[in-house]
Task: inverse folding
């Protein structure tokens, strides 16, 4: 017994020492590169150029995606809930309010927060702030962003406390996570890269991988870059070149999707809709083409294609489709321009995971003012009209007819999704 | 080549069918072109304005509206349906007797052109029937009306008189609400 206690005590001691070492390592945030310019002595033209660049950085980095005020009034005043397996975090106020925002931040402070995940008083930011992606932001872009942010209207709105479960609510503990998973802040170097603009936009500012890259048990990004992940109850699809080709994307359609929110492959939905309105719809065609080229990575993307059926569609699914879907989406899934998306080229039924398809049919989609004048009418919610078995029949019909997938979604899988028990 | 469907349904208490119909036929077309029930109005054709809302009765009790313009006969096959033609009752002499909702819409001058009215009548009827089964607190009535009528678009009078009429019906019909209305709020 005493021997067992000794072993246990030793193990606890080793664990405490290990955590202490990791904590100490994680507290070290690394070097901060010097400011790109003398921010106290900017000429008028230089200042104007930096403000324009800062606005571009804010849009490309989609700060508003998390920092917007869901009650309206400001894209930067915070309060948006972000649901994670560890609890709910709320976007913070990044207006230049000195009381509630970042009005007291220096340009160095902003760089450390964005690239290293550490606030001025040494307080660790939760990695919901995507510093594991932003860690390669250039100091010049960080400085331009700081200048632009400090020009915005301050909003004196208090931050909402996070609601995380123990032990994730112990903020200093993030230092341990940082020691294990935070990449070292290292400004982006375009030298020798084939498509530096595309890489910078996708991997650094756009932080696409924060949703589209699978996470490990510690909720850190894995090496399966952009391989798709379920996040906040929706599947953020696989963006690797072969997956994009398989789902019938073309470079042109990727650009259209990011520019207008709509393409033959689908419409911006779930968390991608705010990405469109705050970020991608404001980017230039050159930027969007760079993104599309980077995602394609030299692969010739074929565009929409007729896909062989994934299986023999069942009569019940066909009847449900005609009765509930065909009125807007057409007998043959052709859709209606500017109101209902075509389903014969839509990618949602092509995912192996039926999560998004089930949720969209069950919950519907609000009407959308997309971008550049494009819009989509509301899709009704059919959750209350379909039994779980009927939902499975309809989902399987869509998968087999247009998704190139087998109709293997069970009633139990539908029930699990609808009850929010999806095990991902 | 569009497939065919053998369609039967109960519409306004009448057994309809069996009818041999195109399987992709939308309900509004069946009502208007096959059954001469022209009270259901086709407007947007996209399920957005709710002018064409008809009532589908659940065999287990309960009812809901669906837009007839985008709901196919394939879905409604075998179901029990009510359209605007089936809302009014009949007296002993067989003369139509307006439902409380219809009467209230007239008394409140709720509509002008009336194009949206069948949809509003059906939605309000479903709401009243739901409250008969499950009364709600008086203070929740306005929210319930807003939720029920919100999908319906009217381009003439605005919505206030429709809402007031439905509120009048709900608050003056015993058994639909729980609690009491303050005297000042009680409809005249």
Result:
């Amino acid at each position: 017994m005493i021997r067992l206690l000794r072993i246990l005590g030793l193990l606890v001691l080793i664990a405490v020492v290990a955590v202490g070492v990791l904590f100490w390592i994680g507290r070290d945030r690394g070097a901060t590169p010097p400011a790109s310019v003398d921010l106290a002595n900017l000429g008028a033209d230089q200042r104007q150029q930096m403000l324009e660049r800062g606005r571009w950085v804010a849009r490309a980095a989609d700060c508003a995606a998390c920092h917007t005020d869901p009650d309206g009034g400001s894209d930067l005043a915070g309060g948006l809930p972000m649901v994670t397996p560890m609890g709910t975090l709320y976007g913070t106020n990044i207006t230049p309010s000195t009381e509630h925002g970042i009005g007291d931040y220096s340009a160095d402070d902003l760089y450390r927060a964005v690239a290293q995940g550490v606030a001025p008083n040494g307080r660790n930011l939760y990695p919901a702030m995507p510093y594991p992606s932003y860690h390669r932001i250039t100091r010049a872009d960080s400085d331009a962003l700081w200048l632009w942010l400090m020009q915005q209207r301050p909003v004196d709105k208090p931050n909402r406390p996070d609601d995380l479960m123990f032990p994730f609510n112990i903020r200093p503990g993030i230092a341990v996570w940082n020691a294990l998973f935070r990449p070292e802040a290292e400004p982006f170097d375009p030298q020798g890269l084939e498509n530096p603009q595309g890489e910078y936009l996708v991997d650094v500012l756009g932080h696409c991988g924060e949703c589209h890259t699978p996470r490990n048990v510690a909720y850190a990004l894995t090496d399966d870059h952009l391989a798709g992940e379920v996040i906040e109850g929706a599947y953020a699809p696989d963006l690797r070149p072969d997956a994009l080709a398989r789902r019938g994307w073309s470079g042109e359609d990727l650009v259209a999707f990011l520019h207008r929110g709509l393409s033959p492959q689908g419409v911006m939905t779930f968390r991608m809709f705010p990405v469109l309105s705050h970020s991608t719809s404001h980017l230039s065609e050159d930027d969007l083409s760079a993104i599309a080229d980077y995602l394609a990575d030299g692969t010739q993307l074929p565009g929409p294609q007729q896909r062989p059926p994934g299986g023999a569609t069942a009569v019940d699914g066909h009847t449900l489709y005609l009765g509930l879907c065909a009125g807007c989406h057409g007998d043959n899934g052709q859709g209606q321009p500017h109101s209902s998306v075509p389903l014969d080229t839509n990618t949602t039924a092509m995912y192996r995971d039926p999560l998004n398809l089930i949720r969209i049919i069950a919950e519907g989609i609000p009407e959308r003012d997309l971008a550049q004048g494009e819009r989509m009418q509301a899709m009704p919610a059919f959750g209350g009209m379909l039994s779980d078995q009927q939902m499975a029949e309809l989902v399987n019909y869509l998968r087999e007819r247009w998704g190139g997938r087998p109709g293997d979604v069970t009633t139990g899988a539908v029930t699990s999704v609808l009850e929010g028990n999806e095990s991902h | 080549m569009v497939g065919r469907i053998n369609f039967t349904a109960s519409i306004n208490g009448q057994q309809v069918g069996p009818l041999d119909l195109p399987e992709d036929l939308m309900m509004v077309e069946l009502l208007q072109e096959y059954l001469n029930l022209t009270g259901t109005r086709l407007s947007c054709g996209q399920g957005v304005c709710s002018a064409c809302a008809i009532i589908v009765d659940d065999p287990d009790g309960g009812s809901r509206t669906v837009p007839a313009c985008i709901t196919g006969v394939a879905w409604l096959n075998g179901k029990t349906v009510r359209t605007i033609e089936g809302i009014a009752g009949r007296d002993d002499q067989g003369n139509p007797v307006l439902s409380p909702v219809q009467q209230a819409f007239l008394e409140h001058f709720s509509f002008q052109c009336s194009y949206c009215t069948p949809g509003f009548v059906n939605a309000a009827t479903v709401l009243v029937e739901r409250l008969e089964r499950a009364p709600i607190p008086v203070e929740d009535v306005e929210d319930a009306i807003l939720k029920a009528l919100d999908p319906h678009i009217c381009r003439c009078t605005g919505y206030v008189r429709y809402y007031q009429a439905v509120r009048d019906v709900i608050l003056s019909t015993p058994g639909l609400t729980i609690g009491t209305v303050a005297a000042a709020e009680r409809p005249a």
